[in-house]
Amino acid sequence: MSHLVYKDGLLAELAWRGFLESTTSEDMDAFLCESRRTIYIGFDPTAASLHLGSLIPVMALAHAQRHGHRPIALVGGGTGLIGDPSGKATERTLLTREKTEENAFGIGRQLSKFFDLSSPERGLMLNNAEWLVSLNLIEFLRDTGKHFSVNEMIKRDSVRIRLEERDQGISYTEFSYMLLQAYDFFYLAQHHDCTMQMGGSDQWGNILSGKDLIRRVLARRSEGITFQLLTTSTGKKFGKSEEGAIWLEGSLTSPYKMYQYWLQTSDQDVVRNLKLFTFLDQSRIAELEAEVAAKPEGRAAQRALASECTAILHGADAVQAVEGASRLLFGDAESPVSADAVEALEGEIPTSDIPFTELAAGIALPDLLLRAGLADSKGAARKLIESGGAYINNVRESNARKVVTTEDVRMPGAILLRSGKKTYSLLMVRG
Questions:
Q1: Which end of the chain is more exposed for a tag (fewer CB within 10 A), N or C?
Q2: How far is CA 56 from CA 66, 220, 231, 274, in A?
Q3: CATH of 351-430, one of 3.10.620.30, 3.10.290.10, 1.20.1290.10, 1.10.10.10
């Protein structure tokens, strides 16, 4: 679809950035141009935080607001009690209501960073527990269930694939999820004039079900857009590191780790990721794309990606801190170091405390390397120093008789020790 020319600003934006996979109407452009639309995306609170894979729908909805439409970020406090079978090979473990509410609160806090929710007219954040938890089963089956054909439901990929796996199958609980999500779309159309749902490609069947329910009950038009599910150029699942998922919550994935994840993006993926995960405009991304082609070793595009994405989630101050920490580890010895940079580095590398009084009295460098875990013995520490493999604050120290004192504290409240090129230890001076 990206080769088409669209009149609507949002559709054009989503197209050139690479979001679009499918739309429920061939005249979606005209539909969006007719009037300001209220558009929703649902986020199920199956974990305490969203992960990077969730950012595609989040960013798309943020672009919708930037192009004048009204976003509804819907946290699935109700549907989260059931679990969406889409894209799942096995039954989900059902969460307690307390855990679902806790997760929903955390996810809502994360989503609020992407949208202007200063008034209901600008945008809404809702929780479908408000209307789903109190549903009367008999009334729901009579008023809503009668509009769904089981013959059609079992054709949906989310159901069909599970039915074909005889060892697993699908429970009635998860089978009913489609009705609940369709009811969400219907409820939002009825109460908030919502006429569009967006989501990942695995949500296609659920979107169609909601669209059909709105047509049958409200006799209104509604539409949907789906986005591609992303992988890296090497075929790996996007948003995963060797340690696991990259979470949006800073207590689960630190701003430093988030920044480093984006910084390590390959040249093959970086331009695509700049389009999908930043608000940089087309001309700026074109400049960065040219730099990737001309000077890939400079990694300007990766630095821009890391800076922009980390700032959206954690703020400009956090970016300055993690950039300072990165310079401290990978830059030159003359780079100025802030207290925030040292704080960002704590916990990212082995860290230990040393009392100010003890340091003031002086500690032999071999003893300090042994204490910091950078050598197995005093003899090994001396050999490391004499071979040129020991560093204090990124400066090589080859004198095995060196005594480290408070005069070696060259950054706010800390000394950085290093063995070889990449093995670090941070000593925090306390007291």
A1: C
A2: 15, 28, 12, 12
A3: 3.10.290.10
